[in-house]
Amino acid sequence: MKLKKIAAFGAAFGVAIAGFGAATAAHADPVSDGYSIVGSDTLQDAVAALANGTTITGTSVKVSGAGRALASWDAFTLGVTGGVGSIQTKPYGPVFDRPNGSGAGRSALLASNGGTAYMSGSTGTPAFSYGTGSVNVSGQVDLARSSSVSGTAGTLLTYVPFGQDAIGYMFKVGTASGSGNAAAATAAIQALTKAQLTAIYSANNSTDASAVLSGSGYTLTPVGLQSSSGTWTTFLSKIGVSTLGSAVDTRSNTAPENDGRVLTPGTNEVQIIPLSIANYVGQLNGAARINTMSGVSVGSIDGNVPFTGTAPSLVPNTTYYNSSDWGRTVYIVVPTAKITSGNGLFDQGLYNLTDSTSTSSLTYWGASGSPSTTKAVKAKFGFGAPTGTATTRNG
Amino acid sequence: MNSKLAKRGLIGLGAAVLSVSLAVVPAFSASAAVVPTVGSAHPVYLVSDIDGSGFAAGTVKGWNDSVLADPQASDPTFSNSFAVPSGATAVRTFISPRGQESTVSAWNAYGALGLTPGGILLPNLMPSANTNAGLGTPSGSGAVANAGGDYSLGIAFLNSSNQVIEADFTFITVTANANANLATWTFDVPVPATPKPNFASYSATSGASAVVGATAVQFAATAANANKSVDVWLEGASAKAATLSLDASGNAIYSSITGLAVGTRLALTDAGSAPAVVDAWITATAVPAPTTAPNATTNPSTQVTIPTPASGVTTVTVPAGAANANKTFSVYAWSTPTSLGQVTTDASGNATVDVSSLAPGVQHTVALTDPNSGAYVAWGTFTLTSPTAGSSTVTANVTSSGKFALEGLASSINLTPAAAVSRGATTAAVPLGQIKVTDDRDSLLGWTLKADASDFTSGTNTISKSALGISPSIVSGVSDGIVLGTAQVAGAAAYPVATLAQAGAGYGTLAVGTLLNADLTFKAPNNAVSGTYTSTLTLTLASK
């Protein structure tokens, strides 16, 4: 009798540990018995830490929704440039395209809930299809990470502020050769103006794009992010570029965000690419699971540095973060019905996970100074207090 | 079967311990919704993650509420952590049946925590965050909320064999709700260990003492407590009275402690210890009086020379030295030890001691002692010179009137007509001489004969008028309605004498009057200086 009981216990514990490990190792292809969140790369490290449990603040912080764990799927397979592939989020669930950014995350969230038209009640035909092969993803995605608010008016989705991020650019200077002057090129590229960034990403030839490096013997190659990236669309919006210049290296719209390894300048070449400052700070501070920023620097814009201090204690520059030019609020997106008390679809766990008044929600940014709050963890990941407010949209 | 029985036995034991705890802390159990936690390795308080303040007993929390566990009652700086015990390889939050905290297989639910080597800081005990279902009954956090009842909630450290090596928890009581999100719970708040020693355990420590002096208390806590810092607790006090730094001998001197009197029981405890670690139990005692007189052999260093007092002088001057200027000392005199009270030295360190109670003609030893320790400060010897004889006369002034008159009072009376009186002796009675009171007034208002005397003087020497005794009498004449006053005894007489004799309203003496007399006596004080002393006795006849 006794032996049997111990055996049964061990088995149960083994299952539980596997379930717990699920969220920490994306490559293990786990599934979640609890809630799932997908979307933006910008928030993925911070959200993954909160979902998986982190002691970055000195205390254990792990979110859950009314007794159910949260599992977070990265926008990209960790450590694999361009690694997208497909994921499975729930037990017995379908395998579908990994949502690889803010837009894709929102699309997957909408599809998981039957699509915009179905959710609005104007049609009885749910549209659960998502991604390659139009996979039915009903119920597979509960939340989405988003680094921007989409433009479609409506109330189907609620964007709850997660924190404040800022857009910036990072650069890498290639090896000097012949007449190339690396020091001059670095001095020129590390402090740009908004107008110069606009000119660079509007340039239709290398000469125009390289104007800021004049005299250094270097050429400048602006690089673009993958097309689903909220960081990319926000960056273009902020520098006022609607038509991308032909000098921009788009990398076939697949370059992952916040990955310093995508910058591969040749001899006498400088490459720049937009990024999330919070993500950079999180990597340099050691909060993120991986640091891809070796040899990569972040520039200042219009004379404002995006952060101060030295790693691992970089601190966001509030002036930069809160500026209308470069600051941006990033969000957790949730179907409005599921956090509306009294609605038939109300889900206490999703409500708790997005309740900004709760110190243990994803979206807390209140007054507490305790290291046990999600706010403290988000600060370690380079986020500041959000300036945006909860907003509803249909997409 | 056997093991099952053994387990039941253990449960029974646990219940017995619970009832004892209730009895020990009745005030707490009266206000708490949950019985005091038993078995937690460390006290577990629940604190707010907003400001670190402690949640009070009776606070009702929701199933999804964040509550931080803390080994202290509050944590405004968010810095108190639970130390990681040796051998721990994992730490979890858990909900378990009470008494089953260390049995992983009995847990209802558990959650993950990070094993931070510096200690587990502020683990969040939100019940619903125990997202893993355990094998206990009911299984799962939600099922516990549905079922309600009594549980333990806390953190547990596990070793590599998945066995609990330490559990820190609080008892909780869950109010069931079919919707787990609406379930509520209350919790135990640990009673902080009290630093107050329990005088029920009083047992006088051999060799330890607390001597209550006039201005200080001398503690001796024995060499076993050398160089310790100890708190002083008086029996019945709710707070410590003082903190002492004991010297290498375990002794300390402390200024007066309010409420500490001879006979007070007190405890010395390790400073700041909670619960109290008692180092010594002591009953306070008084400064011991000296028994044998100091002499040149036993106390040579404090011997001083006391100037011989002049004949008849009843004070001596003890020169204690400038180092003892303006200090108060206890005074003792021998041959038989006699306390002479306390004396304060002047700016030169000289103490003037009243020795009038000591007999003349023999040598005395007088000593000044430290009022706190009883140690000799200065001592010396002296002899009072005895006075030998004395005589006195009394002079009286007389008042008189026509119909209402007092007549015949002698102008001078010698109280020692035969021989001078010795010091300490009382003279034979000497008559005042006949005096005549006449009250032949028509109104018959009645009268009072009063007496007063001045102190006896001889040059600059004085003897109190109380030395004069007077005892009135009626000699002849009309005595109707006349009442004599109480006799005054020599040496204890009180002047003025309000009524030496009187007559009430309605009585008169006729024209013939009434003859009165009085016996006068005189008692020479022990300390009287020889000489002829004079006083004035005044009789006054007053109408009522």
Descriptive notes:
The complex is a heterodimer of chains A (395) and B (544). Chain A is of the alpha+beta class and 395 residues long. Chain A has two domains: 2-163 and 337-393, no CATH class; 164-321, 3-Layer(aba) Sandwich (D-Maltodextrin-Binding Protein, domain 2), CATH 3.40.190. Chain A has helices at residues 2-24, 44-52, 102-112, 115-120, 182-189, 194-202, 206-209, 230-238, 277-284, 318-321, 348-353, 374-380; strands spanning 35-39, 64-65, 68-72, 86-87, 96-97, 129-130, 135-136, 143-146, 157-173, 191-192, 219-222, 269-276, 297-298, 300-301, 307-308, 315-316, 327-335, 391-393. In chain A, strands 1, 2, 3, 8, 9, 11, 12, 13, 17 and 18 form a ten-stranded mixed sheet that branches. In chain A, strands 4-5 form a two-stranded antiparallel sheet. In chain A, β4 (86-87) and β5 form a beta hairpin. Chain A is globular and about 70 Å long. Chain A starts with a helix and ends with a strand. The radius of gyration of chain B is 44 Å and the shape is elongated. In chain B, the strands form ten sheets. Chain B has a seven-stranded antiparallel sheet with strand order 2-11-10-9-5-6-8. Chain B has a six-stranded mixed sheet with strand order 28-26-38-31-36-35, with no helix packed on it. In chain B, strands 27, 29, 30, 34 and 37 form a five-stranded antiparallel sheet that branches. Chain B has four domains: 29-187, no CATH class; 199-286, Immunoglobulin-like, CATH 2.60.40; 300-383, Sandwich (Immunoglobulin-like); 390-543, no CATH class. In chain B, β9 and β10 (164-175) form a beta hairpin. Chain A binds chain B through residues 2, 5-6, 8-10, 12-13, 16, 19-20, 34, 53-55, 58-62, 64, 66-69, 348, 352, 358-360, 366-373, and chain B through 3, 49-52, 63-64, 66, 68, 78, 104-105, 111-114, 116, 118, 120-124, 126, 128-135, 140-142, 162, 180-181.
- Secondary structure: number of strands of chain A: 18
| Measured distance between first and last alpha carbons of chain B | 111 Å
Going across the biggest sheet of chain B, name each strand in turn. Answer: 2-11-10-9-5-6-8
- Subunit arrangement of the protein: heterodimer
**Count of distinct structural domains of chain B:** 4
Number of helices of chain B: 3
Structural class of chain A comes to alpha+beta
Number of helical elements of chain A: 12
Low-confidence region ranges of chain A? 1-28
Report Rg of chain A: 22 Å
**Class by helix and strand content of chain B?**
mainly beta
Determine the mean pLDDT of chain A: 88
Which regions of chain B have little confidence, pLDDT < 50, spanning 5+ residues?
1-32, 387-392, 395-402
